[in-house]
Amino acid sequence: MSAPVVRVAPSILSADLLNLGRDLEAISGADFIHIDVMDGHFTPNLTFGVDTVKACKRASTVPLDVHMMVTNPDESVSWYLDAGADMVTVHLEAARHPHRIVSEIHAAGAQAGVVLNPGTPACALDSILEDVDMVLLMSVDPGFGGQSFIEGTIRKISQVRSMARERGKDLLIEVDGGVSAANVERVVAAGADVIVAGSAVFGSADPAREVARLRELGTPGLAAWNA
Ligand SMILES: O=C(CO)[C@@H](O)[C@H](O)COP(=O)(O)O
Ligand SMILES: [Co+2]
């Protein structure tokens, strides 16, 4: 069996939208394409919708990780499943019926995750942890790329990894916001195994190399909890 490696999910929020095809090609070695769907209500910003997800599906074979930052995702999750999302994550702060959404995602053959904002405690996961494939922990308040990593996230990552361990749950923990070469090893050592990186990847002169570098720098951190 090959050793586990950190999965890297570049966020196209920081891509060059006028050259999105070129940027998707540059990250063809990534593990996921992270697509930040924002509705201007749940977040102060308005970004991508279903058509962007469809366009990414046509342009790339990398699995699509759709991060829904929308009010009432219950109403719109099916659009993203139809558009080709491979992983869909919804905020617990926004979902009316999170278990129902997770079931809908699974019924469509996709993977399901729930997201916590920095201000939402890990215990909010108590009744849904067993039902999801991934927990996404925001390490910035959602809305924009290029923000600074909130340090308290490190403790929350460890808490969620412990919760999963105690329950014997095989869980992906993804961390989103302000992750870069400077902190990726610490983030992973705390218990994460998927990292989102927007500005770190697309702000670099060589996005393909940056994906590989983040994976390389983060992977040693897996040993801390993934024995
Ligand atoms: O969901 C979000 C922001 O709300 C993120 O996915 C950002 O796009 C991450 O950008 P960086 O902090 O890595 O620049
Ligand atoms: Co995101």
UniProtKB/TrEMBL annotation:
InterPro entries: Aldolase_TIM, Ribul_P_3_epim, Ribul_P_3_epim-like, RibuloseP-bd_barrel
Reaction(s) this enzyme catalyzes, per UniProt: D-ribulose 5-phosphate = D-xylulose 5-phosphate
Known EC number: 5.1.3.1
Gene that specifies this protein: rpe
Active site: residue positions: D36, D176
Annotated substrate binding sites: S11, H67, G143, F144, G145, G146, D176, G177, G178, G198, S199
Source organism per UniProt: Enorma phocaeensis
GO MF annotations, alphabetized: D-ribulose-phosphate 3-epimerase activity
UniProt KW keywords: Carbohydrate metabolism, Isomerase, Metal-binding
Residues spanning the signal sequence: none
Essential cofactor(s): Mn(2+); Zn(2+); a divalent metal cation; Co(2+)
Pathway: Carbohydrate degradation
UniProt-annotated binding residues for a divalent metal cation: H34, D36, H67, D176
Protein name: Ribulose-phosphate 3-epimerase
Functional description taken from the UniProt entry: Catalyzes the reversible epimerization of D-ribulose 5-phosphate to D-xylulose 5-phosphate.
Note describing how the cofactor binds: Binds 1 divalent metal cation per subunit.
Highest taxon listed in the record's lineage: Bacteria
Family: Belongs to the ribulose-phosphate 3-epimerase family.
